Amino acid sequence: MDHLIFFLLVTTMYFGINEACKKNHVVIHNELGPGIDLNIACRQFSIERTPSRFHTLKYKDPFYIIEFADNNQLPHGEKWYCLLSHGTRPKYWFDIEVYAQAYYPRCGQLRSWIARKDGIWFTRRYHSPPGHVLDWKIQ
């Protein structure tokens, strides 16, 4: 009987926690400069083939958001990649893994990526300053 009660308690806690889980966010900002558009092509790595999401973000537009929940079924978890580019043909670009799920699902995660002329900046927190993480690749 003790095992049954323990099993019911663990099962209830697991499903209760997952139901209250806030969605994760990948946020992309364009701070390249006036008149410079940021081209964004994001795709989800999964067992099923998912099409890319294409978007052009104007300078100082609010931002581009991908909202999703971590996946419990995938052995390696949820992964998102985005190709960021700007310039003619596009001249400057970088293909980034913008989010990778840990071993267990997480709730309410933020990944904020900022495109600037000197490279790509990143932060995981809402109120902390971003840091420079990548330089643009030049084609």
TrEMBL record:
Instruction: Write the signal peptide boundaries.
Output: 1-20
Task: Give the superkingdom in one word.
Answer: Eukaryota
Q: Which GO terms describe its biological process?
A: rejection of self pollen
Location in the cell: Secreted
- Coiled coil residues, start to end: none
UniProt cross-references to InterPro entries, sorted A to Z: Self-incomp_S1
Q: Name one GO cellular component term.
A: extracellular region
Q: Which Pfam families match?
A: Self-incomp_S1 (PF05938)
Q: Which keywords does this chain's UniProt record carry?
A: Secreted, Self-incompatibility, Signal
Primary localisation category: secreted
Q: Which family does the similarity line name? A: Belongs to the plant self-incompatibility (S1) protein family.
Q: What is the protein name for this chain?
A: Plant self-incompatibility S1
Q: From which source organism is this entry?
A: Arabidopsis thaliana x Arabidopsis arenosa
Taxon lineage: Eukaryota, Viridiplantae, Streptophyta, Embryophyta, Tracheophyta
